[in-house]
Write a sequence for this structure.
């Protein structure tokens, strides 16, 4: 992958008492150069994460972003992202990267939700492609991809990962989301 290839990494930060989770989109080139930031939020325990991430992409107004890399598929306490719908909306491949082995979200969703709230999340979750294991710099990550095949998705993850298993666009987005959340919390306390 060329060093100037850009990915939009998306990650979130939320504190226990927050009703909204801060989302950050960080544009990072394959050579690890940060090239832009955008912020939004989504509801903790809600169903608006897909729309919020779509807004991040369009708010940037950047045609040079080649891929979206998401930190997982369920930010903000099970606000499940529909990566198929997101990929169609932004007309880019979307790659979700998670960092722990698990039996999937379905048991946790069943534990936390019921009725229509559970059904809606299960429909979204079950419509996503399965995740697969990807070895990156000796670490194992778990990848779901829409818009590109699994081998290409793995290559994108590896190309954007300098060390360890966390792709740089996601790592930078996570740091910026945390800083924005902490700033927001400090600003709210000062008002």
């Amino acid at each position: 992958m060329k060093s100037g290839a850009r990915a939009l990494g998306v990650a979130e930060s939320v504190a226990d008492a927050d009703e909204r989770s801060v989302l950050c989109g960080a544009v990072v080139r394959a050579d690890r150069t940060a090239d832009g930031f955008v912020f939004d939020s989504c509801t903790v325990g809600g169903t608006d994460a897909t729309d919020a991430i779509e807004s991040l992409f369009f708010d940037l107004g950047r045609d040079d972003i080649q891929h979206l890399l998401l930190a997982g598929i369920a930010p903000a306490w099970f606000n499940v992202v529909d990566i198929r719908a997101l990929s169609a909306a932004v007309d880019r491949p979307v790659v979700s990267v998670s960092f722990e082995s698990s039996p999937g979200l379905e048991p946790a969703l069943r534990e936390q939700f019921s009725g229509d709230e559970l059904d809606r999340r299960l429909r979204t979750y079950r419509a996503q492609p399965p995740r697969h294991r990807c070895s990156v710099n000796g670490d194992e990550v778990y990848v779901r991809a829409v818009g590109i095949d699994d081998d290409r998705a793995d290559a994108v993850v590896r190309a954007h990962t300098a060390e360890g298993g966390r792709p740089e666009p996601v790592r930078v987005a996570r740091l910026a989301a945390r800083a924005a959340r902490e700033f927001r919390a400090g600003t709210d306390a000062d008002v």
